[in-house]
Each structure stands twice: as structure tokens, then as C-alpha cells.
Amino acid sequence: MNGQQRTVPMALRRLVRSPGAACTLGLVLVGLMASSGAARAESIEFCGGLYRYIDLEFMRPRASQGCLGVRWPRADEALGWTWSETPPDANVEWIVEHATICQGLGPSTDRVVSRGRKVPRYRVTGKPYEFGNYVTDVGTARTEACQSVEYTPPPTARRPSAEAIDQHAPLVFGPVREGPVEMVPRGAIVKVARKNMHLYGVVEEPRQREAVRQLLANRHARCQEVDLGGYQCLMDGEDLSLLLASRGLVRPHSSATLRIRRAAESASAAPPATPPVVARPGTPATALQRRCRQLADTVERDRRLAQRHARYEQRVADAEAAYRETCGREAP
Question: For residues 150 and 244, what is the distance between their CA atoms, to the nearest angstrom?
Fold first, then answer.
């Protein structure tokens, strides 16, 4: 073909797009795949022995990591695609990923996001064929045009119940980072092996940040990336996201599993572990509570400064002592 070829860095094959090919990525028909009606024929692009799928749930959390990251994508925008040798009509629970490509904004910005994952069949849809797409073998000049393959989605392509999905969650992939928890910069972020990792399925509860630090500091953790965003960290075989949620130290994220949501609900229904501020004789309760909130803010501010500059450590100790003396308990 004439014109400049667009190459994606895959290990065995590279996708090349001709100059006249359309740039649209197509709409993902998730709702139709999940419907209980009769199965209807669909199409998928087949290139050089690999089928091109769209795994929208996997790509959405990575929208800000180079996948069309200079603008916020539409809800139905694919952001990339997953190559697999698994036929789209195979009645299997999982497809085996060859590579997942993050679609960038130019010929040099496409990149491989992951390899070798097992992807739930219900989560992927076929990428419709686009005229002009073809592949080329690395190191050769031989090219092969992509084709459109018609197929009928198997029963496993229907989305199961939330309880069934939760049994396999979370799905982890990629390298394992292991070591002591070096720092807890935020209540839902831990630093292990010199990398800050946001725990999957949870967000910070600001008033519980110090409690999270005391619970996790210097303890050994084993962390791995979760395909739907964030990291799963295990401590003595226990999932940290689930552990913190069960103690009311974090709040569930919109992507949280049912187990995390139920653990957080149970924690919120339990009586608070921290006793309320008790006014000392001769001190109005509201004034004391207001003073304790001010001191707590001072402690939190000084702790942030101490993380960047060691000279603030004494200020942290003084602020904690003032809180302890005024409020009658340890600073949060």
C-alpha cells in the first residue's frame, strides 16, 4: 500500500492503518450484549490470525494514562482494543489476551498496556471492521489485509449477575511489588517498593488517615495491579481494601466489589470506635469540640509538612501533645 504506515508496538504483529482509513473507533454495544433477547449476528475485525476486541471497562480507568488522555473521552469511546486468538463465537468464560493496545493521539503514541490476561468473555465486544486496516509481520515487507468476520455471540457473552461477577473479583495482572509499607501519603494510597499505589475499590476517609498509617506502617505487603483500576495489596494474606473498609477507615468507590460495599455498610452500622469529645467541667461542649477540630487540622497540616521537611517533626509532636491535653485522647 502507498503512504505512511502506522505501527503499533506488539511483540509478534503490528497493526498498520492506511492514510485513507477512518479514525473512528466505533460504538460499544454493551447493552445489547447484556440483553436477554435472541442472539443476533455481529461482526469483528480479524487481522493476521488475531481477533480485535474492545474491553471498555479495562480501558476507562486508563483514560488519563495516555489513552486519548488530553481530553476526557465519551462514555462509549473505546480508547483501545484487545487482540486475542480466541474466536468470538467460542462458548468460553474467558478469552486469552495476546496484547491490549492503548489508542493514542498519533502514530507514535499507541502503546501496549498489558499482555497475557484472562479477560471475562462477557466484558468484551467485537471491534467492527474498518476498511483499509491491515497488519504487517515485523521485519518483513509482507502485509495482510484485515477482514470482517460475522459471528453469533455465545451465551457466555451475556453479563452475569453482580454476585457472580464478585466471585472472581478482583482480577489482577502485571508485575508484583512486594515489601514493607514505606508511607501512607493518603488514606487509600500506600507506598510499597518506592511506588505509590491507590488501593482498588476504596477512597480516603480523611479523618481516619492517621489510623490507617498506624495500622499499616512498616508492615509487609504484596501488591498487584487490578484490571478495573487501582491495586490489590495483600497483608498476611488479607486484602487491604476489604480490611480497611471493614474497619470504617475508608469509603467504597463506585467501582467497589459487593464484598467491599457490604463490609463498609457493616462498619458504618457498628458503634464508633472513637469515643465522642467529653467536655471538661466548666467548658461548654460546643467550644471544646470547635477547639478540638482546630487542633486536629493543625496536626494534619504539620504532618503533611513533616513528610516533606524533617524540621517540622517537633511541631507535629507539639501539636499532638496540645490535642491530647485539650481533648483527652490521641489526635486522629
Answer: 47
User: Exposed (0-12), middle (13-18) or buried (19+): which is 93, by Cβ within 10 Å?
Assistant: exposed
Are residue 217 and residue 291 in the same domain, yes or no? no
For Cα atoms 107, 109, 115, give the angle at the middle one, nearest 5 degrees.
110
CA–CA distance, 158 with 312 (Å, rounded to integer)? 56
One domain for residues 121 and 26:
yes
243-262 pLDDT per residue, tens? 999 988 899 988 888 889 99
Asked if residue 5 is part of any domain, the answer here is no
Do residue 92 and residue 70 come from a single domain? Answer: yes
In DSSP terms, 179 is beta-bridged to 221
Spatial contact of 173 and 206, defined as CB atoms under 8 Å apart:
no
List, for residues 159-168, the tens digit of each pLDDT value. 888 888 877 7
Exposed (0-12), middle (13-18) or buried (19+): which is 165, by Cβ within 10 Å?
middle
The 8-class DSSP code of residue 199 comes to B
Question: Does residue 123 contact residue 140 with C-beta atoms inside 8 Å?
Answer: no
Question: What value does the mean pLDDT take over residues 57-79?
Answer: 65
